[in-house]
Amino acid sequence: MDEEWSITRLAKASGVTVRTLRHYDAVGLLPADRLGAGGVRHYAAASVLRLQRILLLRDLGLGLSEIAAVVDEEKDAVEALRAHLTGLLAERRRVERLVRTVTATIAHLEGERDMALEDLFDGIDPARQAAHEAELVDRFGDGARQHIAESRRRTAGWDRARADEAVAEYEAVEDAAVELIEAGAAPDDPRAVELMDRQYRAVGAFWTPDRASFTGLGRMYADSPEFRARYDAKHPRLAEFLAAAMAAYAERRLD
Fold first, then answer.
1. Mean pLDDT of the region 16-20
2. Is residue 120 scored above 50 in pLDDT?
3. pTM exceeding the 0.85 threshold for the entire prediction
4. Quick one: average pLDDT of 1-6?
5. Secondary structure string (H, E, C) spanning the chain
6. Which part of the chain is the HTH merR-type domain (predicted)?
7. Degrees (nearest 5) of the Cα angle 191, 194, 195?
8. Percent of the chain beyond pLDDT 70?
9. What b/e readout covers 53-76, taking b as 16+ CB neighbours within 10 angstroms?
10. Which one of 23, 43, 98, 142 is most buried, counting C-beta atoms within 10 A?
């Protein structure tokens, strides 16, 4: 490995934006090893390996504060990578089971094979789903149980294409939010409020939030480590931007 990497080269190789690397430096997660001409950040080989560990942990669903605690305590890079590998292999096995389940379900629906009821749920983690639902109830009270039931009713007849469409709409809103952040827009900017109308309609495909629950949902995006990791992967300010923009939208347009 080369002895030193510029921030531009490191961003290109890792797929992380220059802005994100600057943020990691600012919060002390990945400090630059030196500043070159014009203030350009440069990173030594050890820092490049540290970034790899950061990204591995981020992919496992940890938030930035949790990642910092882990990498700061790691003494042996090889042992740390072995621990990451164990987690990745476990996740790969889970995903492979889900792939087999979905593939078999498609074949069953197309009449190519019969499928036992129990096989429909192979690889699905009910504990993870239950944890998400419990978090919603903790945040929004018993009313969240009605939202969960409503969501299940609305999606009961969805096929794969409809589910993919819903996911794509969330992705599109997030990408548009990143563009607003990069353009320097505030969360209460009219453009952000209009974008959150689209977010509200995306959520509305599953359940109908009011002012309090839509605001609370945005706050959960920022506070939940699993959601936070997803948004951090796109932009380090995305989770907080969405939370604030959803609150602004709810205040102006919802009861």
1. 89
2. no
3. no
4. 78
5. CCCEEEHHHHHHHHCCCHHHHHHHHHCCCCCCCEECHHHCEEEEHHHHHHHHHHHHHHHCCCCHHHHHHHHHHCCCHHHHHHHHHHHHHHHHHHHHHHHHHHHHHHHHHCCCCCCCHHHHHCCCCHHHHHHHHHHHHHHHCCHHHHHHHHHHHHHCCCCHHHHHHHHHHHHHHHHHHHHHHHCCCCCCCHHHHHHHHHHHHHHHCCCCCCHHHHHHHHHHHHHCHHHHHHHHHHCCCHHHHHHHHHHHHHHHHCC
6. 4-73
7. 85
8. 69
9. bbebbbebbbbbebbbebbeeeee
10. 43
Q: Look up residue 15 and give its two tokens.
A: 């797929």
Both tokens of residue 103? 């593939």
φ/ψ (deg, to 5) at 34 = -160, 160
CA 184 – CA 141 distance, rounded (Å): 35
Backbone angles phi, psi at 159, to 5 degrees: -95, 180
